[in-house]
Amino acid sequence: MTKTAKKTIIICAASVAAVMLALVAFAAPYLLSGARQSATIHVYPDMTTDVLADSISSVQTEAFGSRVATLLSLLDVDLAKRAGAYAVEEGESPLSIARKIRNKHQLAIKFTFQNVRTKNQLAERASTMFMMNKADLLKLLDDSTFCASMEKNVYTIANVFLPDSYEFYWAVSPEDFVKGIAKYAVHFWTDERKAKAAALGLTPDEVCTIASIVEEETAKSDERGKVARLYINRYKQGMKLQADPTVKFALGDFGIRRITHAMLTCDSPYNTYKFEGLPPGPIRLPEKSTIDAVLNAPEHNFTYMCAKEDFSGYHNFTDNYATHLANARRYQAELNKRGIK
User: Fold this and answer.
1) 9-23, 38-52, 221-235, 238-252: which has the minimum mean pLDDT?
2) Which long-range contacts (C-beta less than 8 Å, at least 24 apart) are formed by 204-210?
């Protein structure tokens, strides 16, 4: 090999090495630099890479956010199709994050709810955890056509929301959110539970409505079955339920401590002092245990109850109206004594 040829090879090798070193130097920050802290990135459908870079920079560093955005541009990632929440682990590289977004490896968000009374409260809670708008979810729940597709109406649609923990992606649509939760309700209503409801002469929706009243009526879990049977007795006998919680729901004020005669005239289908039968839907989202308390309500003949005057949270039960009036007088006297109006 001539000296000229050797020189040419050396020059080429040096050039290749220089290019490789340059590539390594360029790629190193994208491969080796790490996020300074764990965080969650939210990608919106109308987000640009520049806006995303700023969002990432706010919780990491400006350079880090810029690198992720650069990689997304090089990979030709359409952010409009990547809406979601993405987890960033401390020390994770820009390349790893860019690949997560490109492959839409979203973070699943756990949605847990209990002690929820209204669709409005549920929508408020969901809107704080997911991309969906509260108004859009409420509009869907008030859409009679959509409710009918779920074999419900705008009142009973609330019965698909059984308090529990569910997982969804952050960008879940209102429709997929409702349908996802409804699947759980379908599994909850086993053939055995449906048979128990039928034996009581009730539909699953009617059971949920009674359960919602029972849950508002007593916080004592060991009393719920007894309260449930009382309302079932009244319902079957054609008596008005006369449940105070339904009046509070009709008035939109669960903080009321004493129901007055004026309140009982409220013109609402939820006012069970004025209208016979069950309200059109639940007055809260009852727990599964309360629904089961209704389905397994112990037999008794009581049709009247009144809160005990010792304010223990329990009730006095009777099937005699005169006895009930005596119980009520003792309770009202204690309300007066304590200055509760």
Assistant:
1) 9-23
2) 204/159, 205/152, 205/156, 205/159, 205/281, 206/278, 207/291, 207/294, 207/295, 208/156, 208/159, 208/282, 208/286, 208/291, 209/156, 209/159, 209/278, 209/279, 209/281, 209/282, 209/283, 210/235, 210/278, 210/294
Specify whether 167 is located in the same domain as 214: no
Query: What's the token pair of residue 210?
Result: 């009674």
How many domains would you assign to the chain? 4
Angle at 236 between CA 270 and CA 263, to 5 degrees: 25
Dig out the tokens for 31 from the structure: 């491969």
Pairing status of strand 39-43 against strand 108-112: unpaired
Write the pLDDT tens digit of every residue in 183-233: 999 999 999 999 999 999 999 999 999 999 999 999 999 999 999 999 999
Q: d(Cα 334, Cα 328) in Å, to the nearest integer?
A: 10
Q: What angle do CA 80, 54, 97 make, to 5 degrees?
A: 65
Instruction: Confirm whether 20 is domain-assigned.
Output: no
104 token code pair: 């839409």
Name, in order, each residue with C-beta under 8 angstroms of 169's C-beta and a sequence gap of 6 or more.
84, 85, 106, 107, 108, 109
Residues 92 and 119 placed together within one structural domain of the fold: no
The verdict on residue 123 lying in a domain is: yes
Q: Are residues 309 and 224 in the same domain?
A: no
Nearest to 209 by CA among 193, 196, 190, 228: 228
